[in-house]
Write a structure and sequence with these properties.
The complex is a heterodimer of chains A (173) and B (683).
Chain A (H helix, E strand, L loop, with lengths): L2 H10 L4 H11 L7 H12 L4 H11 L3 H10 L11 E6 L2 H5 L2 H12 L13 E6 L11 E3 L2 E3 L4 H18 L1
Helix pairs in contact in A: 2-3, 2-4, 3-4, 4-5, 7-8
Chain B lengths: L7 E4 L2 E4 L6 H7 L23 E4 L3 E4 L10 E3 L3 H16 L15 H8 L23 E3 L9 H9 L5 E4 L6 E4 L15 H5 L5 E3 L3 H9 L4 E6 L1 H4 L15 H11 L3 E4 H22 L5 E2 L4 H10 L13 H17 L6 E7 L3 H6 L5 E2 L2 E2 L3 E4 H11 L20 H4 L6 H15 L17 E8 L2 E9 L1 H13 L6 E5 L17 H18 L9 H11 L5 H7 L14 E4 L9 E6 L2 H5 L2 H14 L6 E6 L11 E3 L2 E3 L4 H24 L1
Parallel strand pairs in B: 1-5, 10-11, 10-13, 12-19, 13-16, 18-19, 21-22
Antiparallel strand pairs in B: 1-2, 3-4, 3-5, 6-9, 7-8, 14-15, 17-18, 20-22, 21-23, 23-24
Helix pairs in contact in B: 9-11, 9-15
Classes of the chains: A alpha+beta (173), B alpha/beta (683).
């Protein structure tokens, strides 16, 4: 199964795009000033911000789609491309950087065949991003996979985490 | 209250009285120091991004003058060594990342970046150029967007949002990648842009500029097989002189006509003639609606920016939009209808060129409604700026030419057709006609002072022949939106609404010469049009005997069948964004294609709660196990917004849909689909 098919499967089950967005808009009282929390909730739901959903959000809030696009592209947290099931965020803030975060990043890139330009694996399983600071400098260098924080990382430990996830996915499949 | 002594502060060692200025920049400029700026525009919100208007305030340090309110006692310096250095660095950095092909830039000579760089004495750029060419967006018929020349001042973004309430462009991305883009980085021509072009008139550089059709017009002029017919809009004649160093507001009609004849235009007509024709048609439409108690208020339809705006955002009011074509299109239609026979030429040999103060007219001329047998009624639209450039290219000095007169009959006009270029002009012209028609006597003093003015919304009451009329005049689309909302809410009751997209009406159009002193220019142009009216012998459209002749020869009566065919049009709702239909519940793989049910989620239907239908349908599909036979999709607009919510079941569109009617239709459709397939199975 290629990336597109996988992404499509993800979208169609339960495939209730506008339904969910409608709920998110309602929860935020359809207030344009709540655009950022709305986009966060949408991204939580779809793992990224699909273009048509952004148009729908703009319509629902009665603001121009260009403004929604502007906000969505300003914050690095928001993704306009589909993200993988596991989002690996490597901290490259000052503390993590001096604790040698870059070798970890390079190891992960090598392991998954990714780069700064190609951030998501073809099987839509992993997305690798760097972030400026996660506020966990005491644990530097830090890797966060989805919501789980892993401190005092090494290139080897990071690869082990990826191996474990792949194993786990195979078992589930 | 005791009047206090005027509060003062000090600017460069001189005491200056504070007199209601909003910020230090206004005060500094008031004392004759022209601090440079890119992002400051008195009509827009303060942005404070360009960092050129910096001043040094004692005890506070270096501040942006535009974003610092004046306070008594401040000691302000505008020209220290440090400020000079900072300003130079800011401009050098902008230039390092700028496409510096100035000689071939459309704004060469009127570019503020060029001007400021020269004023600040920038002769070398100390920073390495990191300019990476980005593609130029030429998708719009009206505007060219060249991101390589953008200085990110945001004037365009704020004008589009704050004054026009359209928001077709906004800042996207961040830091080094920041850019002004239409939604989703799409083409400008594909989205919500109404082509008013005000973004281009506030753009300090050539990042947004009117699209040019000069080359095509020269080709038509050089082609011996064509008759090139021009029309000149009223607002052009009082602005084009600015490009040739004339005082503001000088009417150069005769010189413009002379220049065009010398350049090779065969016939030059006056758009004011068809403005008179528009008045007759539109006033009759208005009087008929008023006396028959039909849909009111009537909205004017001369402004193509406003028409597209209404089509996008107020589809429920399209029935109130006058069906009259704009004067530009009436001229195109009349010329292409009458000239071929008169000149013994074929329709395709006539090339109609409009000279307009407007960028949206370029879009209007391309509307499919305004084509006859595949040939556009208006072939090319040149802005005032473009015509000025053609005159310059020809080597003619506008000011030295002996004036020439328009060609007859469609160069003849009354004052009513001339004041069309000002906000309030259409209303005043219609009123002058209505007085004549309803009272049997043309107005003795045709000038109507209370209609005139600069306020963006003016509402006046008047009485004509015993009928009380309430008229509203609006300019600026943000104000138009507000007015439409009040009309829809029933809090503003009026009979006629004149809407012009640009500040001040056509005289403030984006095709006109630009400059930072635009307000002063607009005032002079408006006054010049009123003076032109005063100098003409006739002031009411019904007095234009060539218009009368036009009816006798070609049209019959106002609002006749023939005048409807040639002079009227229709409107349709437009999608705001070119979104595709989106599957909500995808049918499982099965031998047959599922029945596709599309529910409109566009603005109009959304407001009529199409969401509830989507949810109800999906529940229904799930509960009845129809997943493999019915596919529910959300669609963006069937262009039947007045009758929403709209749902398409297969090929059938159901208007004013309810969940019940849609479910019924689905089952009816499914029954039809299943029976033939059973037969096929039997065979």
């Amino acid at each position: 199964m290629n990336a597109c098919e996988l992404a499509a499967t993800h979208l169609q089950s339960p495939a209730r795009r506008y339904d969910k967005v409608g709920v998110i808009l309602e929860q935020n009282g359809r207030q344009p000033q709540r655009l950022i929390p709305i986009l966060q909730a949408v991204q939580e739901e779809y793992r990224y911000l699909p273009e048509d959903v952004l148009t729908y959000v703009a319509t629902g809030l009665d603001i121009p789609p260009a403004r929604v696009f502007g906000v969505a592209t300003f914050y690095s947290h928001f993704a306009l491309e589909p993200k993988g099931k596991y989002c690996i965020r490597l901290c490259d803030g000052t503390a993590c950087h001096v604790k040698r975060s870059i070798p970890i990043l390079e190891a992960i890139y090598r392991r998954l065949g990714l780069s700064a330009k190609r951030m998501t694996t073809e099987d839509m399983l992993f997305t690798v991003e760097t972030v400026a600071c996660l506020g966990a400098c005491g644990l530097a260098p830090v890797v966060v996979i989805n919501e789980e924080v892993h401190g005092q990382m090494t290139p080897e430990a990071a690869i082990r985490l990826i191996d474990e996830i792949e194993q786990q996915e195979k078992v589930q499949a | 209250m005791i009047k206090r002594q005027a509060a003062t502060l000090t600017i460069d060692g001189r005491p200056v009285a504070i007199d209601g200025e909003k910020n230090l920049l206004e005060l500094v400029r008031k004392v004759g120091i022209d601090l440079p700026t890119f992002c400051y525009h008195s009509d827009l919100s303060v942005y404070g991004a360009c960092r050129l208007c910096l001043v040094d305030v004692d005890g506070r340090g270096i501040l942006g003058a535009c974003s610092t309110p004046p306070e008594p006692g401040l000691v302000v310096r505008t020209n220290t060594q440090e400020l000079r250095e900072i300003r130079k660095i800011a401009v050098e950095l902008l230039l390092a990342n700028h496409d510096r092909e100035c000689t071939s830039c459309v704004r060469s000579g009127s570019c503020q970046l060029q001007d400021i760089a020269r004023r600040l004495g920038i002769t070398t750029i100390r920073y390495r150029s990191i300019h990476q060419p980005k593609p130029v967006d030429a998708s719009s018929p009206s505007l060219i967007r060249d991101p390589n020349k953008c200085v990110l001042c945001g004037d365009c973004v704020r004008f589009c949002d704050e004054i026009q309430s359209v928001g077709a462009i906004d800042f996207a991305h961040r830091g080094h990648d920041a850019a002004v883009l239409p939604a989703f980085g799409r083409d400008l021509g594909a989205g919500e842009c109404v082509n008013c072009g005000q973004c281009a008139s506030v753009c300090p550089t050539g990042a947004l500029a009117p699209a040019s059709e000069i080359e095509a017009v020269w080709q038509a002029i050089y082609d011996p097989g064509t008759v090139v017919v021009a029309q000149i809009a009223p607002a052009v004649r009082v602005a084009i002189g600015e490009q040739f160093g004339s005082e503001y507001g000088l009417n150069t009609t005769g010189q413009v006509v002379a220049a065009m004849k010398r350049m090779g235009f065969d016939i030059v007509y006056d758009t004011s003639f068809t403005a008179d024709l528009t008045v007759v048609e539109e006033a009759n439409e208005f009087i008929a609606r008023k006396s028959n108690g039909e849909r009111l208020p009537l909205f004017t339809s001369c402004c193509p920016g406003w028409v597209k705006f209404a089509e996008q955002y107020f589809p429920q009011l399209l029935g109130n939009l006058s069906s009259c074509r704009s004067p530009q299109q009436m001229m195109g239609s009349m010329v292409k209808h009458t000239l071929p026979a008169q000149l013994g030429r074929e329709r395709k040999d006539i090339v109609m060129v409009s000279i307009m103060p407007c960028t949206a007219k370029k879009f209007e001329a391309r509307r499919p409604e305004f084509r006859t047998a595949g040939i556009p009624d208006v072939d090319y639209v040149l802005t005032t700026q473009e015509l000025a450039r053609m005159i310059e290219e020809s080597g003619l000095s506008l000011n030295k030419l002996n004036p020439a007169s328009f060609d007859m009959p469609m160069g003849f006009k009354t004052g009513a057709g001339v004041i069309f270029g000002n906000s309030g002009g259409v209303t005043e012209a219609v009123l002058r006609y209505a007085v004549g028609k309803l009272t049997g006597q043309n107005p003795v003093d045709p000038e109507c002072e209370e209609i005139r003015g600069e306020d963006s919304l003016r509402v006046i009451r008047t009485e004509v022949g015993g009928i009380e009329l309430k008229l509203a005049i609006v300019h600026g689309l943000g104000k138009a939106r507000e007015t439409m909302q009040r009309i829809l809410a029933g809090t503003l009751l009026v009979d006629l609404v004149e809407v012009m997209a640009c500040p001040g009406g056509c005289i403030g159009g984006a095709g006109q010469p630009v400059g930072r002193d635009i307000a002063q220019r607009r005032r002079a142009r408006a006054e010049a049009l009123y003076n032109t009216d005063r100098l003409l012998d006739l002031h009411c459209s019904q007095e234009n005997h060539f218009v009368t002749e036009c009816y006798q020869k070609f049209l019959g009566e106002p609002a006749s069948r023939e005048s409807h065919r040639l002079l009227h049009t229709h409107y349709h709702h437009r999608r705001r964004a070119g979104a595709e239909d989106h599957a909500l519940a995808r049918a499982k793989e099965s031998g047959e294609g599922p029945l596709i049910v599309r529910v409109c989620a566009g603005t109009g239907c959304f407001l009529r709660n199409s969401q509830a239908i989507i949810q109800g349908l999906m529940k229904h599909v799930e509960a009845n196990d129809l997943d493999d036979r019915v596919q529910v999709q959300a669609s963006f607009c069937f262009e039947r917004c007045g009758e929403g919510p709209n749902v398409a079941v297969g090929e059938t569109i159901i208007s004013q849909a309810t969940l019940d009617t849609v479910v019924q239709a689905i089952h009816a459709e499914l029954a039809q689909v299943s029976s033939p397939s059973v037969e096929a199975g039997a065979r």
